[in-house]
Amino acid sequence: MIMKVRIGISLGDGALDSESPDSVLEFIDDCERWDIDSVWVSDRIAAPRPTLDPVVFMAYLASRMRNMKFGTSALVLPTRHPVVLAKQLATLDFLCKGRLLLVVGIGGDDSRDFEATGVRKEERGKRGDEAIVLMKKLWTEEQVNFEGQFYSVRDLTLLPRPYQKGGPPVWVGGRSKAAFRRAGRLADGWLVSSVTPSEVAAGIVAIRNHAAEVGRVIPEDHYGVLVPYVFANNNEEALKIAGPSIRRRQDIPPSDYSALGTPDQVRRKIQEYIDGGATKFVMRPYGPKEAHVEQVKILAKEVISPLQTPFSAAERVERLS
């Protein structure tokens, strides 16, 4: 099987820098012109700066973009009711003809979103697992009956069905043992952040083992990585441009899980992840917001063009349909 490498762009949780939407919308238009596969939005409710609701934002993107796909990285499942969310995402996927990419998570330990939505933080893992199961049933079955610890439905059928058969594949994030179990036993793929290439390879092995235990198989091309990046003359200069926010872990330096430096250095880093088994990438530019357009433009020309698997004629027709 030939694995297709696909590279998208993360807008992060600070996509909206001012009261005007023009900057982020112009940025998205630029991305679409440069053969970027997809754009990704994050999910924050209680945030210190303006953030966009991901479902509403993606609905707008679906009507604005013709070529690119769009996804969540990651949608925090425990803060949303799975029946309402399943209906929203089915509607969105139906209207955009299957361009929806879905990565879900259970949220971070320091998130205030749980308090804001009345969810006990210690329940978030079980709630997330239950939500995945229920949404998949609602996308594929009629007269759904479900009785869980947190959610229950009786004789419920959601129509229309998502455009993608079986619903949009549900990928999960996280690098904990629980996340590996969730990916292998319940999900359709894995998109992880702040990890080294060797950690990606080890995570893929663990997920495959968990899947095999319950008779499941995760497609080989359903493993991906969110990679922070900065183009500069060298690694040290890139770290200075990125600033302290690029440090997402205390046990290893940012350069271990980021792509920093010249285009050649960035390409080599992504190739290390490909060698470890990842084929899907969400690249997140760091540094001053005013430099992001140029950073993405360089990425499109120097990294995406040589590394991304070319779109087939059928795929190009589909992207333009």
Question: Can you describe this structure?
Answer:
The chain is an alpha/beta fold. The protein has one domain (6-320): Luciferase-like domain (TIM Barrel, Alpha-Beta Barrel). Helices cover 41% and strands 18% of the residues. The protein has eleven helices and eleven strands. Strands 1-2-3-4-7-8-9-11 form an eight-stranded parallel β-barrel, surrounded by seven helices. Helix 2 runs parallel beside helix 3 (82-95) and helix 3 crosses helix 5 (124-140). The longest helix has 17 residues, at 124-140. The chain is globular and about 60 Å long. It starts with 5 loop residues before the first strand and ends with a helix.
